[in-house]
Backbone:
């Protein structure tokens, strides 16, 4: 495992109903990232389709595929050719009736370095993921690659400090969050700014609390009925272990953003902000309870 | 326990070497807060003295006092008179050789509703707290008052998502963080903005992740040698369960800030951002380990 600095790219893209076109878009941007010197590229959540979880529709299970399968194979070819690590996202068919929202990591030689099945599954209006995805049972994952160890988490996971902690403690240099999040257009005026701020705040907090880089990779564009649907808010960003945003995408366009992840910065950050030193592991056991309110 | 909305005040003040003067300052601002309709007032960490942890000095143990003791007695008189809940902070002498950094809660009738002994103790240049304070052994605390349940945490705790989670899960409406944090003047130019931003980001993230109000209460002013010491950065704030800052103090002056804590807003926030619903308590056990890196 390399421990030197490397450039990471977050690929913010639009997604359509054409799986091949989406793969071509991803490929175009991964090539661009590699050309710019990135050694790791991260794609948004479920990038091969529009965000189908806006409805509960049995026909959408057709979109699922095995891991390894067509998407990992395509990404593997690209990672081998460009010698770049790719963090991808797959609607995984594990068995008839068992589907997952899965992050996959292709190493720079095209091998499947590892996978992570989304542990926290949302279910909210237009985000009906509990209908489609079985919660992950691989636990939290930090995966070794030629760039170093990458922690994979997916979208809803980003609201859970436990997920970031358990991934970072495994030695991840960077936590990568493939994401599909946006506004209900009817709510945007009142809630848009605070929702976006909360989303960024949570992920910056994971970087700070754990002394780790974070890459949040969202899609962009409006999907669904014109007077409804979801306006994906983009805003992909990469921040350092102090929570400083190093690179940030706009909200309204496809974009590749690149920043450097330097393990020596991570080590210095943890020496100066030594939060991991003082964790009260003797006192955290009740975190395994659903609530601590007395009945 | 009341479950209606109430106003909370964060009292940002300067602290001097004169314990009586500091108490008088606290009293002045608590009266002001009560007059403005606040039903709960929170004081900064160790408000009865300058921040003595800048050096390791045995003579400073003279500042310690029991709980209950002079400070809780003085605050109790005030809370009874004004019918206001007070979150205070005491350098606690528990026994010869056993001292704590303790948050105390005086209920609106002057009774000592509860106490919390700081669980996470820092030790960094000019913050030599491990010399003075035994880490708390009461665990995390949410304390019932006439306003509702208040979670008490202290300064360094603010960097620990586990602390916020374990306190919020007990049903706290608001997490109160008495704090003494500032810049090393020599670092301010390079690091000041990112340190302050990280501090605010972490505490806003606790509000968001847990769907709870947060009140961060810092002191203000420079203490210590002119060419050194600590410039306490003020910036006290109160945020809502969406992480929106409702009130914020400046960095350079004493100030009372006030905001409303409404349990019904908290409940609505948790229904719309249902993070507590989906926690993977089956998968969090490794959080009780120091690290998960393989040797």
Residues:
């Amino acid at each position: 495992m390399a421990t030197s600095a490397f450039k990471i790219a977050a690929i913010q893209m639009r997604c359509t109903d054409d799986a091949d076109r989406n793969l071509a878009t991803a490929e175009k941007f991964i090539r661009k990232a590699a050309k710019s010197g990135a050694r790791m590229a991260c794609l948004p959540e479920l990038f091969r389709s529009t965000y189908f979880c806006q409805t509960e529709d049995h026909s959408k299970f057709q979109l699922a595929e095995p891991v390894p399968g067509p998407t990992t194979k395509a990404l593997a070819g690209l990672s081998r050719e460009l010698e770049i690590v790719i963090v991808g996202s797959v609607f995984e068919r594990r068995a008839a009736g068992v589907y997952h929202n899965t992050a996959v990591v292709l190493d720079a030689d095209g091998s499947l370095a590892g996978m992570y099945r989304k542990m926290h599954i949302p279910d909210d209006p237009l985000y009906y993921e509990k209908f489609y995805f079985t919660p992950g049972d691989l636990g939290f994952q930090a995966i070794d690659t030629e760039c170093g160890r990458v922690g994979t988490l997916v979208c809803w996971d980003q609201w859970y400090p436990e997920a970031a902690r358990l991934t970072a403690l495994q030695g991840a240099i960077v936590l990568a969050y493939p994401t599909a999040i946006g506004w209900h257009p009817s709510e945007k005026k009142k809630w848009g700014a605070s929702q976006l701020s909360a989303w960024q705040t949570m992920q910056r907090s994971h970087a700070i609390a754990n002394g780790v880089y974070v890459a949040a990779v969202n899609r962009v564009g409006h999907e669904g009925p014109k007077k409804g649907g979801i306006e994906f808010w983009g805003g992909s960003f990469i921040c350092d272990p102090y929570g400083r945003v190093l690179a940030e995408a706009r909200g309204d366009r496809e974009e590749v953003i690149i920043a450097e992840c330097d393990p020596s910065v991570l080590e210095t950050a943890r020496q100066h902000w030594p939060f991991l030193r003082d964790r009260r592991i003797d006192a955290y056991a009740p975190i395994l309870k659903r609530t601590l309110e007395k009945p």
